[in-house]
Inverse folding.
């Protein structure tokens, strides 16, 4: 777990595609969950911004080196 | 024997061939691709940019001469704080959750059963995939007949099995059954698609892995959970993402079956969007609504493409 986390953080710092794409994917999924959850209106309000950030990030980071 | 290419070259009129001979392969490729790119820009990209622009205004398409005011992010702010739209999102989430769950469970089970060799296997596969070949408009219409309280087959079967009088309930009317009715129809129509993808996954597992497991005396149950499920999982994820995106945009079938009713029980986002845009004529507001849905679908599609690439690498 610690090894995975350190590899993930190193990848982020070195601007590697894999970890950044994973981060963007998490943001997109989080945004979609926030959009459709029935518990908190504030989460619904901020969902679009989270999904948009994730999507834009995905478009940019998919051009990063492997 | 003369080469057909030489024949075509000889048949080309001299002025044309002279003009073409001066062009590089790249230029010729661009000439062929240009009309498609132009159409794509005109039909897809331009309306998208125009919608983004409209989403920041109070434009109403039924009042073309009214003054169009720039309202900034107000449309987005109103949508994202609207209880009604939040409820619509939850209705869509309910529809998405149950359709995906049922389609994955039934689709995977069917694929697992069909993957075994038995007589009539091909015929059965063909019969199972028929629903997904039908048009959603046709499916919507004939399920409306099946759900008729007086003459519908569904109510008749329920009466036969439970004794509840057929005309005492309506699958598409008030009473809370309508959301489940659309889930049943979508599951009936699209489970074969999930089944086909799972079948592709199951058939991609080499036999020698099972043979090695047999040598190690692994039980069938263990083989299923440690070989079959992990190796089919990327395919299953692909099917879930694809169906998720499609069902998030679901319009035609539900519009024909319930039109979003009774009340707002089956009001999915795309039906709500159509009401805002073409019944209430709030074009600017509905453009912002469409952009929110577009960004969500685009995000999900990005994950889908990533998953697809992972499956390709296998």
């Amino acid at each position: 777990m610690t090894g995975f986390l350190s590899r993930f953080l190193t990848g982020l710092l070195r601007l590697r595609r894999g970890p950044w794409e994973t981060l963007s994917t998490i943001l997109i999924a989080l945004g979609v969950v926030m959009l459709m959850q029935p518990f908190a209106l504030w989460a619904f309000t901020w969902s679009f911004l989270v999904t948009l950030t994730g999507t834009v990030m995905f478009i940019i980071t998919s051009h990063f080196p492997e | 024997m003369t080469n057909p290419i030489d024949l075509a070259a000889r048949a080309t009129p001299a002025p044309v061939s002279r003009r073409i001979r001066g062009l590089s392969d790249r230029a010729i490729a661009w000439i062929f691709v240009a009309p498609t790119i132009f159409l794509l820009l005109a039909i897809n990209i331009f309306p998208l940019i125009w919608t983004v622009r409209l989403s920041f205004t109070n434009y109403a398409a039924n009042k073309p001469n009214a003054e169009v005011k720039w309202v900034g992010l107000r449309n987005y702010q109103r949508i994202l704080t609207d209880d009604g739209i939040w409820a619509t999102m939850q209705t869509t989430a309910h529809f998405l959750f149950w359709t995906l769950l049922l389609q994955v469970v039934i689709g995977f089970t069917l694929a697992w059963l069909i993957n075994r060799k038995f007589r009539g296997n091909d015929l059965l596969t063909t019969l199972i995939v028929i629903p997904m070949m039908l048009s959603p408009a046709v499916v919507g219409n004939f399920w409306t007949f099946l759900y008729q309280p007086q003459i519908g087959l569904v109510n008749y079967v329920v009466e036969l099995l439970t004794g509840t009088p057929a005309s005492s309930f309506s699958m598409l009317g008030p009473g809370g059954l309508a959301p489940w009715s659309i889930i049943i129809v979508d599951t009936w129509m699209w489970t074969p698609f999930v089944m086909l993808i799972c079948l592709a996954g199951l058939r991609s597992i080499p036999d020698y892995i099972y043979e090695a497991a047999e040598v190690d005396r692994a039980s069938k149950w263990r083989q299923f959970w440690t070989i079959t499920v992990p190796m089919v999982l990327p395919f299953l994820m692909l099917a879930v993402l694809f169906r998720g995106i499609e069902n998030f945009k679901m319009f035609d079938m539900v519009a024909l079956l319930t039109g979003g009713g009774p009340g707002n029980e089956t009001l999915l986002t795309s039906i709500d969007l159509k009401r805002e845009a073409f019944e209430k004529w709030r074009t600017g507001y509905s453009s912002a609504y469409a952009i929110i849905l577009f960004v969500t679908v685009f995000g999900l599609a990005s994950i889908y493409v990533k998953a697809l690439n992972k499956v390709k690498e296998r």
Observations:
- The two ends of chain B are 46 Å apart (CA to CA).
